[in-house]
């Protein structure tokens, strides 16, 4: 990614974007064509509106509402006490991880670059939040070149091409379904390892939810019994 942004120059080979060698274009035009959604979204100690508009300072309020809807954060913002004027706190501490990532996605869309890079954009999120954000990213990815850097393979299963790196070298490349046809491959092993973990995690989450519901039901019955007993012991009413 640093090579693509020309923070470093390649020692070997060349990088082309839209048929042009990136070393033959200005840094300004190159970086204007690229957007990034990082693993840990950087937010300023200001309002949600300010943080969104940072993607394009000339954007109108309607533009900002539109990208917020695309990123699936608009309704959540409206539920906040101050809406788009809500202060996010230092580095966005007042927001959840999922909310911060959605704001980062919306900000990248507002910039409207032809290429967006998602750098481990969902790696720190729980599985449910990750799936919701992936759905938003899939809709956005249809309209531009999208590059996903990920260890979680669930992020890249819909990609037109997956490039598997091992020790800095290309080990495999192809579509998800094709890469799974080689049982001894790195991708195959990673996929089945992660799938097993996800199944175990889902079972654990369902068990915790079932226990939580059972506990709530027991509390409700206990409260109901206490109310009935208190009424039975009352001699001054016609219950």
Automatic annotation (TrEMBL):
Q: Which PROSITE patterns match?
A: ABC_TRANSPORTER_1 (PS00211), ABC_TRANSPORTER_2 (PS50893)
What keywords are assigned to this protein?
ATP-binding, Membrane, Nucleotide-binding, Transmembrane, Transmembrane helix, Transport
- Name by which UniProt lists this protein: Iron-sulfur clusters transporter ABCB7, mitochondrial
Q: Which reaction does it catalyse?
A: (glutathione)4[2Fe(III)-2S] cluster(in) + ATP + H2O = (glutathione)4[2Fe(III)-2S] cluster(out) + ADP + phosphate + H(+)
**Any idea where this protein resides?**
Membrane
Specify the ABC transporter domain's residue ranges.
1-192
Q: Where is the composition biased (Basic and acidic residues)?
A: 203-221
Q: Looking at the record's lineage, which domain of life comes first?
A: Eukaryota
Q: Tell me which Pfam families the record gives.
A: ABC_tran
InterPro entries in the record: ABC1_TM_sf, ABC_transporter-like_ATP-bd, ABC_transporter-like_CS, P-loop_NTPase, Type_1_exporter
Instruction: Please tell me whether the keyword Disulfide bond is annotated for this protein.
Output: no
Q: Name one GO biological process term.
A: intracellular iron ion homeostasis
